[in-house]
Structures are given as structure tokens and as C-alpha cells.
Amino acid sequence: MTDDSNIWRGIVVVDVDLVWGALDRRKSFEQTSGLAAPRLSKNLNRRRHRGANVREIAAMDMEVDCQTESLRDMFEKNLLDFSMGKAKAAKLVRDLVNSSLAEEGRDGDAKVSLVMEAIQWAEQQNLAFLRQSLQARLIRLYNDLQRFTSALELSTSLVKELKKVDDKDLLVEVQLEESKSYYSLTNVAKAHSSLTSARTVANGIYMPPRMQAALDMQSGVLHAAGERDFKTAFSYFFEAFEGYDSVEEKPDALRALKYMLLCKVMLDIPEEVQSLLSQKLALKYNGPELEAMTAIASAAKKRSLAEFNEAFEKYETELKGDLVVKKHFSSLSETMVEKELTRLIEPYSIVDIDHVTSLIELPRDRVEKKLAQMILDQKICGTLHQDEGALIVYDVAPADATYETAVKTIHAMGQVVDGLYDYAKKLR
Asked: Which ranges of the sequence are coiled-coil (predicted)?
């Protein structure tokens, strides 16, 4: 790796037997590698003398000077010195890579190089399963770094390979990441296809709650994006929220809750946002993400475009920085313009367009086009007089219930007469 004298610290989960072996070979480990030996807690040593032989968590604080040797060299020199089996070595490498990727402040290219070196080491050791799992982790890393094309290139070949070996758990994970990549590249149709394949495979095996929640989350995202079916999307987000909450994945649970609030706003029922946040499960979640959605809901409820724009400026990171919310920003903006125009013209029968333009602080051309569109969509009943620069609004007459009932009765009688006629023809 090329990091400038960075120190790589990894927290890994290992078997207690492996810990005891590491203790016994501490001296040889230091002499062989020149690395700081794992600092193991005294409690584990006491448990060894008590005969503990169950799986436990031990912290290994490995310090590696990345200027002097690469990660792959460290694997070759040190991991096999533990005299462990291939399965344990693979698990140790995987956990070491994951813990290093979880560190904050590490450059994206450095993370990619780290995983690539681990993949090369796995190939040299003929650890096919480890290589595949690391490639799946690399796909997820590409998505996190917004390198969606690279993620798709790798996932295409890996999916074919996983289907041959029938590794369904890893296949679901890769197809889910593939769906996310397609969605981010605005190819909703292929995103749906990848997600459908993942859910089909998942239906035949046991899915951990976290992975099931991830599938539900992506289903909600795609329903909101493609079909704009926010009611169904809300149901999926709710399932994802409960799933993440059950396994204490708070960041993901918070994101699911945020999307639930977004659905309420898009369904034009922003008044339900506060009641949703007051539910038992949601009470323990807070933060700027929820504050941002609450501000958007408040603006929608008041039909205030100014408050809406102010909320997006104040919470730009939480709203425009979120890919899902960002994709609905233009739709939200147009909806808020319609709400603002409706609020402004409601009390009047004749409205001066220039006056409306000054109040809403938008270009006159855009206001005229939006009013014309609202008239065509029957959202307002009126006529635009461009010569006079005015909008004439008509009162909408309430539908006559008696007339509708009479029409339905006549239609029903016609069906009865037709039925009697057909019956009479059969009697002849």
C-alpha cells in the first residue's frame, strides 16, 4: 500500500483457540514479522486456565507500517505463522479487511488497493470462497465511493461464477449491490431485474434480519423511483426500519425512517409526519436527517415554497446529499410550487399574474406555464387571459348526487332489460 506512514489498526473476531496459539507464539511472531505482537487481555488468559473453549471476541491491535511492506506481504509472512486452517485464515483476513475499511479518514483509492491486495493474496492461496467474498466487498466499496460502473463490471462476472458454485448467500448480496448500482445510474428497469433475482434466491434460503432489511429497503427505493408508488414504498421502508432496529443497525434504521417520512410528504399527507415520529419505535431516533424531513413536512403542510427552499438550504447535506431524496427533489419542488400558487389564488376570482409572480418570487414565464398546466390537469378551474395578464378563477360547482344516482339507476335497469331479453330468446 502507498499510504504515507499510516498505521493500520484492525479489530478482528477470532477463535479462542487461535488467541491461545497467538499467546504461545508471541515471541516468534515478533521476530518473524517485526510487527507489534497482539495485545491480548488478561481476562482471556484467565479464561484459558479455566478451560474456556467457546467462541469469544478478542481484540487484536495490529500495527503495520504500510511504507515498508504491503498488506499481501503481511498476509504471507504472518497469517500462516499461526498454523491455522484455511478457513480460520480466510476469516481472519476478511475480518481484518472489513475492520480496516470501517476506519474513518482513509482515502478511497487506498481502500480499493487494500481490498485488491487481499483478493490477489486469496488467489495465490487458492482460497476461492475468500476471493469471492472479498470481491463482493469490493463491489460494495465501489458503490460507497460512487464508482458504479466499476461495481457493475465486477458484479457481472461474479454473479455468473456464484451461480455455478450455487453460493446463494453471497449471490443475494452481490445482486443487491448490482441493483443499487443500476439505480444510481438511473437504469430503474435493470435495478428492478437485479433485485427481483436477489429476492427470488432469498426466498429459498434463510436470510439474516439485516440482509432482509436491506432487500426491503431497496424494494422501497425502487417502488418510489419507478412506479412512484409511495404507499407500497412506505410499507417496504417500514419493514426495513423494523428489521434494522431489531439488529441495532441504527444508521440504517434512521435512513429507513427518513424515507418513511419522505413517503408521507410525497403522498400529500405531511400532517402524519409528527404522529409517525411519536410512535414507540421511532422515539429513540433523532438527528439532523429527521429534523430536515420535519422541516420539509412543515413547509408542505403550510404550502409555503419559501420555507421549503429554506429547509433545503439549511439541511443541504441531509437532503441533496442523499441520492434517494435528491432524485425526488425536482418532483417535490414542482409540487410545492403548485401548493404555493393554489394558496395564493384561493381567496380571489381574478388574480394579476405579475402580483403572483412578485409574491412567489419566480420568473413570470414559469408561473404562466405552471398555471396553464394546473388548469389542464384540472387542479384549478379557471382561464388565463394573457393580454390582460390575469387569471380568472371559477367556482367549482359541487356534483349533483341525485343526477349521478339517476344515471346509475338507468344503467342498472338497462342491464336488467338486456338480461330478460336474452332469457326470452332462449325460451323461444
From this structure: none
Write the CB contacts of 197 (distance below 8 Å, at least 6 apart in sequence).
Answer: 175
Tell whether 41 is covered by a domain. Answer: yes
**Considering the domain boundaries, does residue 326 fall inside one?**
no
Give the integer Cα–Cα distance in Å for 149 and 151. 5
How many structural domains compose the chain?
2
* Residue 42 included in any domain: yes
Q: Which residue from 33, 104, 96 is spatially nearest to 59, judged by alpha carbons? A: 96
CA angle 53, 58, 59 (to 5 degrees): 170
Least confident of 36-40, 226-230, 234-238, 382-386: 36-40
d(CA 340, CA 334): 10
158 belongs to a structural domain: no
- 237 φ, ψ to 5°? -65, -35
Nearest to 292 by CA among 309, 273, 312, 276: 312
Q: Concatenated DSSP letters for 265-315?
A: HHTT-TTHHHHHHTSTGGGG--SHHHHHHHHHHHHHHHT-HHHHHHHHHHT
In the predicted model, is pLDDT for residue 300 greater than 80? Answer: yes
Q: What is the CA radius of gyration of the chain?
A: 31
Per-residue pLDDT reduced to its tens digit, 48-85: 343 333 333 333 434 443 433 455 555 555 554 445 56
* Full residue range of the structural domain in which residue 376 is found: 347-393
Place of cell 491461545: 20
